[in-house]
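Minutes, project check-in
Item: structure for the 496-residue chain
Input as provided by the requester:
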Amino acid sequence: MKTRLYILLAAFAVLGLNSCGEDFLDLQPSTSVSDEQAFSSVEAAQTVLNAAYSYVGHYQNHTLSYIAADVMGEDLTVTSGAYGWPTYNWNQYSYMYAQSPVSSPWWTGYSNYIWPINYKAIDCVNSIIGHADLLPETSERTELLAQAHALRGYCYHWLVRLFAGAYNYKPDGPGVILHTEPATATSEHLPRATVAQVYSQIISDLTFAYENVSNSNTDYITKQSAALLLARACLDMNDFSNARKYAEAAAGNVFDGSNLMSKEQWASGFKDHNSEWLWYFNFIPSNCNIYASIPSFYWFAESMEGIEYGGQVEAGEVFTLGNEIWDGYGTIRATKAFVQLFDKNDVRKRFPFYVNEEDGFFTSKFGHRTMMGDAEFPMARIAEAYLIKAESEANLGNAAAAKNVLNALQIKRGATPTEGSLDKIYLERRKELYGEGHRLFDIKRLRQPLVRSAYPEQWVALDLPADSPRFMFPIPNNEMLYNTALTENDQNDYWK
């Protein structure tokens, strides 16, 4: 990145976008301040950390990338606009695999938001890490550094999974650009590191966080959520021993279902964090664009008066039969084939109605509090640790252990227990984690093809082979244009 850290910008980001911190520094307006001033105390440096958290949760990063990771799969879709329901252009071009490396029109070029916003977050935490020697040696400084490393590892994991190929496909293939030093006006332009090099940095950062973080507030990263982030990265690398190790740490080595949310909590719609949520982001009206938060695009009416749950509603009756009906745009839908995967008593079957089957089922997994988009969103949940533990055990030859863990999750959700085969575990991931930004990354790491042609709700019936270059977002044109270390050959293959 070719930017200089401005504390005014950081403070604005905190106050305008972030909900994580409670103790904000009241700074006087200034165009810039010296490093000595910015890092004169842990409290001042905390403002920079809060700015990084703000970038992570910014809707132009969080909403666009998380929803893309789901609608680029086969289970969820985006309304086509052909049945009287507007698309608003949001998320449509990710679903269509029609991403553009240019920034105009904005709705075709989401990579132009996701890429720079993640690097802004990385720039913030690089400044904290690079100037740590200016801070007094206290436990607060250690915590600040642990948080900075955790966010850097998290951001690089998102970037490499969106903009590069899978680790277990071509680890020596092009990854993303590794910035680990504070940015200045004269910072060296850097080429793309390899996928393996990026993952090495991710593991290093998240390990530092896991070993040093002491925070227990789940609106920041904790030791357990750092463990889960590590388990995710290890799973990408087929490092099943360490994936299991960190999944166990994330779940407190409890896999009997007692640490999972209840059926009632699940059925209430994901809107308030609970003990299963290891890390969450809070979207509230006073500090962010809640109308662009993820729940706004999913949730539209829990039920319809006089209509059987999961039944058809006439288009003209949607606004007259619904309860609390203006609770989301309703543009993200589920295919009928996906809905039919769930047992009748499975609490995760949150698909209350449809207008046209060929346009998909509305979903109510995500809820709202006081108004549309006002909700908390889970960034890491213990249920994912169960699934990583089960998958790791199965790959390590421990079939009985895999089955026990998988069954504990299924029983808690009201689903029928199954065998603990890898295929059943992969299916359970789809049913448990839909809408939370995992499907595209599972397709890539498992080296699966994308098959949509069997689903009539998929109005872009795109079938792609395993390891397709189309699974990668394009590197934004601005990066290609201004980074002198890149040539046109450094663009991802499909977008050259």
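Outcome recorded: Confidence is low (pLDDT under 50) at residues 1-31.
No further action items on this chain.
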